[in-house]
Amino acid sequence: MKTNVGIWIDHRKAIVVVITDKGVETTLVISKVEKQLRRTGDVPLKGRFDKLSVPADDSRQRALTGQFNSYYDAVIACIGAAEAVLLFGPGEAKGELKKRLKKRNFAGLVAGVEPVDKMTDRQIAAKVRQFFAE
């Protein structure tokens, strides 16, 4: 039984379309990533220790990267035993997911990476069917 997967992804959500001999199955993965992390200690302080009350930007970036990694791992968990994967969507998320797949030794599964705009669920499923029909 042949299994192909198409993933439309951005930083807010991913729509995973799994095509098998039995039919098409669609899964929605919602990102819980908080894009604009709030800085604790944004209140202007007066005194010698005001710089110590604001966390460093690199620690905020590490926290954001960790959130994205767990989001991408949740998307990768939906792939299952796929033979080929199509990644498409707006923005940088598809490239970041491709890097994450490579890091987890799934790089050979990626059949293509395409930039597309926002699409409905039916358009996404049709694009995946058309890509793997060729």
Structural account:
It is a single chain. The chain has 134 residues and is an alpha/beta fold. It has one domain: 2-Layer Sandwich (Nucleotidyltransferase, domain 5). It contains three helices and five strands. It has helices at 57-77, 93-103, 121-133; strands at 4-9, 13-19, 24-30, 84-89, 110-115. Strand 4, helix 2 and strand 5 form a beta-alpha-beta unit. The mean pLDDT is 84.
Quick tags:
Nucleotidyltransferase, domain 5; elongated; five-stranded mixed β-sheet
CATH architecture assignment name? 2-Layer Sandwich
**pLDDT < 50 stretches:** none
Order of helices and strands: EEEHEHEH
**Major beta sheet, strand line-up:** 3-2-1-4-5
The overall average pLDDT, rounded, is: 84
Please bin the fraction of helical residues.
25-40%
